[in-house]
Amino acid sequence: MDITSEAAVADAVKAAKEPLSVQGGGTRGISGGGEVLSVAGLNGISLYEPGALTLVAHAGTPVSDINAALAKENQRLAFEPMDHRTLLGTTGEPTIGGVMAANVSGPRRISVGAARDFLLGVRFVDGRGTVIKNGGRVMKNVTGYDLVKLMAGSCGTLGVLTEVAMKVLPRPETEATLMLHGLDDVGAVGAMARALGSPFEVTGAAHDPAAATTMLRIEGFETSVRYRLDQLRAVLTTTGAEMTVAHAEDSADMWNKTRDVASFKAAEGDVWRVSCKPSEGPAIAARSDADAWVYDWAGGLIWLKTPAGHDLRGKIGTIDGHATLVRADAQTKTQLGTFHPETPGVARLTAGLRAQFDPRGIFAPHSKTEQAA
Amino acid sequence: MEMPIPNSSILARKARVVERLQAVLPPNAVIFDENETRAYECDALTAYKCAPMIAVLPSTTEEVSDILRICHQEGVPVVPRGSGTSLAGGALPTADCVILGVARMNQVLETDYDNRIIRVQTGRTNLSVTGAVEQNGFFYAPDPSSQLACAIAGNIAMNSGGAHCLKYGVTTNNLMGVKMVLMDGEVVEIGGAHLDAGGLDLLGLVCGSEGQLGVVTEATLRILHKPEGARPVLIGFDDNEVAGACVSDIIKAGVLPVAIEFMDRPCIEATEAFAKAGYPMCEALLIVEVEGSDAEIDHQLGLISEIAQRHNPVELRQSKSAEESAKIWLGRKSAFGAMGQINDYMCLDGTIPVSSLPHVLKRIGEMSDQYGLKVGNVFHAGDGNMHPLILFDANKPGDLELCEEFGAEILKLCVEVGGCLTGEHGVGIEKRDLMHVQYEPDDLNAQMAIKDVFDPAWLLNPAKVFPLDASDARRSVAIAAE
């Protein structure tokens, strides 16, 4: 289907008799089966006010176009959305609609918030083909229910995003990363907790057990970054770890790789993503029986690589959080479920919302809500 | 503001409902004497008053569950109440309702500095959440003006903001999990000490739903370490437009202040007469605050002052000490009190794109002349959240209605320039009948469909948020089904 307008999206949804698979660039591996409904033709930035830190774009606008427009004004998408192509080997052009539909956030999530926290307004087409708007383009807005948050992360199961309004932020003057060497998982998570519990505004905290390297990012004005690095070193001397610093581009490069989980790029096997209470990260990883893992979000996000078909949820048991099967073959995804099972109360509310927004069940029911039986 | 006619069949069953509630609650937790229920007749929108049929004060989630189950079975509407500080009438009762106050549920359940969270019962006040962690250098960021009194329950219901949300976000950006009781008594838990929902973002949906989807009894909140310090700079301008351009330039320069406050001439004059903060008499005044170490603050204030100088300010005063900071903030913090000295006032909180500021202030000035009512403007300029304070005389017949009409025109203007009706106070009853200005019928239907899922009988705070004619069919079906 060649779709270039919101009205055409609405027509396509109304006319649909079979399930549709809503797609932006199709790079994130979350679309379900069914005929593809692509919003890639809804392309373009419709409003950008750098002085008001707001940008509005059609859902199919490539993330790269948005980044380029923001860079000209020395601004950025602060939530640092991951590019899934590295990890999943997908091709295509990531779109801003896809980022928001999947609520994709990167390492800076711990300091500035998630994609959903930067989404100010949406326009979308629900399962009846009705165009609905919610929120707006201002930063503070409590007018009615927040369907903006509901749409963020709904992975196209409640409606087709056609336009998104976002808050953007200034790009800091520079950045640097303090690296601690030789810590084990528990030591690293402890060190990251101390760094984040300091007043020095760490904007990234990750640990790679294979390299025994813990990374703490500081961003801001040059003088400020230098000062905060020194202060952080002082806070972390008791860890006994050797410390080095990566500056500017070297630092940025490390965080791009962390964001995209580049260390699992070429590796064989399934990849799981676990969101958990940071201090519980090491114990969860230890009982997962995974082949390898890396921590982001100060331990609160673990990427784990396992043999194909490995039931990671079964190994880790009940956690404060959830495990998503991000990379696996179709059979494993069907067998284990992409998404974490919900508690009965939440599952009932979710089903109720789906029935309201997509009464005909045409938005590929086996995507976001695809769960282990 | 119109409210639904009380349901006489419910009023007739008052004794039975009281008896059933008494069976599950301690004796002092059920209030039904007409002299005592009057204590709950209004919130901070005091122009509207109506005593509830019954008020209940539970102490546990289990008691909340029992109350809601009984009210659900009896078909009695329930209006949840935090501390009753809503400026939008969010906790205004109807004569046939049960007020469910969470004030007794004020315990800290868990503090966890390693994971930077605190778990509290939601009757706890906003400021006392910070109070529970500040001995370790931590704080809870959202800081509504009423933070001494307002409850976390109300903060979640209204998605409250505050002066510092330019940097730290509003409630929804700092809320990680809730325990919530649905209208039928079912207890659900959403989120927790981890980041981001696994499935649909129900947490984001519940936050700001004005007590219409469920009663939140426990909340997991993000806490942060306090910055090393904070200091403001005060900048005065002879022109609103120039002040607006200065705000825009500061933001574009890559400095992200923790707060940018704006006051216009009527507001400056009122606060000077009242608080004598030593403000310059000019058209527009900015207070810009930044955080960090002393040297970092000096550097950032230096950059901001450089930018401000390019706009020819009539005054530029950088704070060098805690005393100077307090003096700069004194006038801003007394602004509402100062306006209240002059007359009664109504406080609006529409949000506009920052670029529309000069146009909107000009239009408000023109309308002020037209309505013959004075307005002072206080404004969170960094995020576009306005607080026009319209002065009126509550004892003068017709003045409240005139003021409301003027207020509605200002809010319509906010929507017209690309903004919204309310930035942090909520819709409640105050802006309920203006919702159609911002939203099409389909947009409102989509929102009401959410309530259908969480509260199919439309018993929780039913006459709020949505225009009565828009929600009438749903509320009537619910009543007919009794």
Defining traits:
heterodimer; A: alpha+beta; Uridine Diphospho-n-acetylenolpyruvylglucosamine Reductase, domain 3; Alpha-Beta Plaits; 3 domains; 5-stranded antiparallel sheet; 17 strands; 31% helix; disordered C terminus; B: 482 residues; alpha+beta; 7-stranded antiparallel sheet; 18 strands
Structure in words:
The complex is a heterodimer of chains A (about 375) and B (about 475). Chain A is α+β, with helices and mostly antiparallel strands. Chain A has three domains: about 5-170, Uridine Diphospho-n-acetylenolpyruvylglucosamine Reductase, domain 3; about 175-260, Alpha-Beta Plaits; about 260-335, Alpha-Beta Plaits (2-Layer Sandwich), CATH 3.30.70. Chain A has helices at about 5-15, 65-70, 85-90, 95-100, 110, 115-120, 145-150, 185-195, 220-235, 250-260, 280-285, 310-315, 330-335, 345-355; strands at about 20-25, 35-40, 45-50, 55-60, 75, 120-125, 130-135, 160-165, 170, 175-180, 200-210, 215-220, 240-245, 270-275, 290-295, 300-305, 320-325. In chain A, strand 6 and strand 7 (about 130-135) form a beta hairpin. The longest helix of chain A is centred in the middle third of the chain and has 15 residues, at about 220-235. The relative contact order of chain A is 0.13. Residues about 365-373 of chain A have low confidence and may be disordered. Chain B is globular and about 70 Å long. Chain B contains 18 helices and 18 strands. In chain B, a hairpin with a 4-residue loop joins strand 5 (about 110) and strand 6. Chain B folds into three domains: about 5-225, Uridine Diphospho-n-acetylenolpyruvylglucosamine Reductase, domain 3, CATH 3.30.465.10; about 230-335, 2-Layer Sandwich (Alpha-Beta Plaits); about 345-435, Alpha-Beta Plaits (2-Layer Sandwich). With about 475 residues, chain B is of the alpha+beta class. At the A-B interface, strand 7, helix 7, strand 9, helix 8 and helix 9 of A face strand 9, helix 8, helix 9, helix 11 and helix 17 of B.
